[in-house]
Write a structure and sequence with these properties.
The protein has eight helices and six strands; from the N terminus they run ααββααβαβααββα. It has 211 residues and is an alpha/beta fold. Helix 1 packs antiparallel against helix 5 and helix 4 packs across helix 8. Bound molecules: uracil.
Length: 211
């Protein structure tokens, strides 16, 4: 476990904190997360961390991998090419982007756009765990294998950890919460079949909201 004590946590003090306050607290902590293995890469490149954006009361929480270049340049999740696909998918089932919450398991961009390392996922895990607790979504969609596998492990569904092609758009119920692993939108940029799989998967998400 990455120890919280390894982070210099600058706690904000709020009386009866609202969701907004608690999410702001996370933002401050990520911004000041100098112990992060990705902090120097962030500052050397004048990148921003990407905390997440959307409706604090969202029924659907989308969790991607880590910011791409465009995201790190702007501080906004899924605003580059993968984001365009995500927007298309949301449009296809008439879900408004402002009604959902979108974030990543790793809040800083890894060098050379490489996959996040296990120690990076662990370093940022406390933030995503708290975001889930604060937002309390009904549905969490893992975009890509890293966030999908993270979620299955977190919710004690280790035995379901399989290649993403075997679990894409499967619905796992944990009490009132539904976890839905998904292909990463970036995988559909040049792959029409993946795009079709994503469209079908979004229909499942839409149905699950009303179940
Ligand atoms: N890919 C991700 O996983 N997250 C982003 O925010 C952008 C691209």
């Amino acid at each position: 476990m990455f120890q919280n004590s390894k982070r210099m946590v600058k706690k904000l003090t709020f009386k009866n904190p609202s969701k907004r306050d608690l999410l702001k607290e996370i933002k401050e902590e990520v911004v000041n997360f100098k112990e992060s293995p990705l902090y120097n890469h962030r500052t050397d490149n004048k990148f921003f961390p990407v905390i997440g954006e959307g409706n604090h009361d969202a029924e659907i929480l989308f969790i991607g991998e880590a910011p791409g270049k465009r995201e790190a340049q702007t501080g906004r999740p899924f605003c580059g090419r993968a984001g365009k696909i995500l927007d298309e998918m949301l449009d296809s089932v008439e879900i408004k982007r402002e009604d959902v919450y979108i974030t990543n398991i790793v809040k800083d961009r890894p060098p050379e756009n490489r996959d996040p390392l296990p120690e990076e996922i662990e370093a940022y895990a406390d933030f995503i765990d708290r975001q889930i607790k604060i937002i309390q979504p009904k549905i969490i969609v893992g975009l890509g294998r890293f966030s999908s596998h993270y979620l299955l492990k977190k919710f004690n569904l280790e035995k379901e950890i399989k290649p993403i092609s075997s679990i894409h758009s499967k619905v796992f119920k944990i009490g009132n919460l539904k976890i839905i692993p998904f292909f990463h939108p970036a995988s559909a940029i040049y792959d029409q079949r993946k795009r079709d799989n994503l469209v079908d998967g979004f229909k499942i998400i839409k149905q699950e909201i009303y179940k």
